[in-house]
Every structure is written in C-alpha cells, then in structure tokens.
Design a protein that fits this description.
The chain is mostly beta strands and about 190 residues long. The protein has 1 helix and 14 strands; from the N terminus they run βββββαβββββββββ. The protein is elongated, with a radius of gyration of 34 Å.
Length: about 190
Amino acid sequence: MGLRIDGNLEVYSDNTSYGSLKDIKSKAPTAHASSSTTYGVGTTANYGHNKVINDLTHNAFANGESLSAYQGYLLDQNKQGKITKVTNSYGACWKFDNGLMICNMRYPITTAINTAWGSGYISGDKALPSFPAAFNALPAVTITADGVDGAIIFNGGTAVSNSKPQSIYLARFASISSKTFYINITAIGTWK
C-alpha cells in the first residue's frame, strides 16, 4: 500500500485517506507509557491503557487495571486446590483444602545403644518432636532411619497422638556408646 500526500491528507494507493498530516502531532507518540490516563483507560468494553497489577488483594474492580501473567498462573494453581505449608525446625506439613495433611520430618538423635536386652542391646525410650501442625485425628505414621549402623527401630512407650509421633527405641546386636541416627517421620491424616 503506497502513500502519497494530497494537500493536507495522507492518501494511500487504495484511495483511503487518514486525516491531516497537521493532526499527527496530537496523536500518541510511539513510546507513551505513563502513570496518567492521558490516552484513555481500558475497560471491559473499550480498548485502552491498562496498568498491570501483581497482587490478588484488590477488593474492588477498577477500569484500567489488569492482572499480570504471574497472577493468572497463581489463580490457575489455586483453582487446582490450595495447599498450605506449615514448618518447624525438623520438617513440614502440607495441608490440602480437602482436609488431607501430609507431614515429613527428619530428626537427629544422638544416643547410646548399650542396655542389655535379650541377646542384644537397646537405647532408652526416645521422644520424637511434635508435628509442625496438629492432625484432627490420629494419623498413620511411618518411621525409618538413616545411619542406623545395624540398628532397628520399634515403638517406644508413648503412643502416637494428634500432635506428635510415638516414641521409639533403637536396638542392635552389638552395643554402641554413642551415635547420631537420623529419624525420618512421615505422617498422613486429616486436619479438618
């Protein structure tokens, strides 16, 4: 499409004119980002300028504001089910909107396993830390260990509760004066 100047009009080869060349100065410049509404505010009905907002805490609709792509991503994640993470020094619990809660903790215990017990040796009854968040009913708890050096784990004298896993004993066939064991605790249950 060619352009020719015919008097004060821009005329293209298809004979369409687009106004006076003198009016060009009153048009928006190519780069015209601004905090003002000089060139018109976008609405649900009209194209226009929009200010991008990057939060979901607005409590009212405002013409000329639109959500960033990141906020769209967060909304999409939220519609799939909100997950809240609660932590303490030893791990985290993930609370799902449907009431499911999963906790995972790692707890170091330094202890001796040197009390005679049958043909082996046993530690004292070892309490484990509280869950980062309490369950509303008894959870299913699985306990494993790293660095056990031949030790086995079994339930101690304190039972599992809504807020804490059961205590444990560590046992071995040979005694050991002191060793650090890393206890891994996974609990699954409900929080509401």
